[in-house]
């Protein structure tokens, strides 16, 4: 495991404490060797899955999962990730209309704003739990609750200040997590989409956060710096206060003060 990834793993465990494994993700170019012990869903499980399922297997099981077009079941992921040719049917909003948008025209607007890879731009994608990663990742994906994601946002802003901007549509979050993160070279807050909840088993209390390769050191420094500054997870609870109790409880206090024995 590269030293930089080991330090990130240690910083995340110390300062974020995610309930599932952080996931290292790499896009695999044509002819590039796949990491050792990579499992391919079609070959090894006899199944096709969604990309969000592959990420979920990595974060829950701790397996190294490789996904190519033949391993995928989700038509939206196939077209957006460039594993199948783009179709006018998709671009015209027909896969969105009636489910996410009122009309195909509105659906076309939504589809146009999804970040995409070109057809056959990549051979596939590999996802591995961070602690088992031997390759150089393009993206680190961390699922957590809103407080943990907030912790990562402030870590990202430690060096630069300002605000972190992300956008949300409630669908195709696999593209937000990897394609948008790589194209913008910026951390992203991820709202798990409907499919991620149905197929990837993302829970109601989960969000996610992504780190492009170029920002790994910033996150390590930011987690440590903001921790020293007093930003902590779990969030400290302010407990030094006097509670207020029901009147019929406080009647006992009144009687004690008045010396009443009954």
The best one-word shape is globular
Oligomer: single chain
Beta-strand percent range: 5-15%
> Going across the major beta sheet, what is the strand order?
2-3-1-4-6-5
Q: Count helical runs.
A: 11
Q: What is the H/E order? A: HEHHEHHHEEHHEHEHH
Count of DSSP strands? 6
The number of domains? 1
Which stretches of 5+ consecutive residues score pLDDT under 50?
none
User: Sheet with the most strands?
Assistant: 6 strands, antiparallel
User: Helix- and strand-based class?
Assistant: alpha+beta
Q: How far is the first residue's CA from the last residue's CA?
A: 71 Å
Gyration radius, to the nearest Å?
Answer: 23 Å
Overall pLDDT level: 98
| Secondary structure: helix percent | 25-40%
Topology of this structure?
Blueprint: H1 3-15, E1 23-28, H2 41-45, H3 51-61, E2 65-67, H4 75-80, H5 88-91, H6 104-112, E3 124-129, E4 139-144, H7 146-156, H8 173-184, E5 188-190, H9 194-198, E6 207-212, H10 216-228, H11 247-258
Antiparallel strand pairs: 1-3, 1-4, 2-3, 4-6, 5-6
Polypeptide structure, described:
- The chain is an alpha+beta fold and 262 residues long.
- It has one domain.
- Helices cover 39% and strands 11% of the residues.
- It has helices at residues 3-15, 41-45, 51-61, 75-80, 88-91, 104-112, 146-156, 173-184, 194-198, 216-228, 247-258, and strands at residues 23-28, 65-67, 124-129, 139-144, 188-190, 207-212.
- A six-stranded antiparallel beta sheet has the order 2-3-1-4-6-5.
- Helix 7 packs across helix 10 (216-228).
- The N and C termini lie far apart (71 Å).
- The model has no long low-confidence stretch (mean pLDDT 98).
């Amino acid at each position: 495991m590269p030293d930089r990834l080991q330090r990130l793993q240690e910083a995340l465990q110390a300062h974020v404490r995610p309930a599932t494994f952080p996931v290292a993700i790499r896009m695999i170019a044509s002819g590039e060797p796949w990491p050792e012990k990579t499992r391919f869903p079609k070959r090894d499980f006899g199944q096709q899955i969604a990309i969000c399922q592959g990420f979920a297997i990595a974060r829950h099981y701790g397996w190294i999962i490789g996904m190519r077009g033949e391993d995928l079941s989700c038509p939206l992921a196939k077209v957006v990730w460039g594993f199948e040719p783009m179709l006018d049917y998709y671009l015209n909003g027909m896969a969105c209309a009636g489910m996410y948008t009122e009309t195909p025209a509105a659906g076309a607007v939504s589809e146009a704003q999804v970040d995409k890879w070109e057809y056959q731009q990549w051979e596939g994608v590999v996802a591995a739990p961070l602690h088992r990663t031997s390759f150089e990742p393009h993206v680190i994906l961390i699922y957590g609750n809103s407080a943990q994601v907030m912790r990562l946002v402030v870590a990202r802003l430690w060096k630069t200040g300002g605000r972190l901007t992300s956008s949300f549509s409630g669908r195709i979050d696999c593209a937000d997590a990897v394609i948008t993160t790589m194209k913008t070279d910026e951390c992203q807050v991820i709202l798990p989409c409907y499919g991620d909840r149905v197929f990837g088993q993302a829970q109601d209390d989960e969000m996610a956060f992504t780190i492009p390769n170029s920002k790994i050191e910033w996150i390590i420094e930011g987690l440590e710096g903001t921790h020293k500054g007093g930003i902590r997870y779990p969030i400290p609870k302010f407990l030094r206060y006097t509670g207020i109790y029901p009147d019929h409880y406080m009647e006992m206090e009144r009687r004690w003060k008045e010396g009443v024995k009954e």
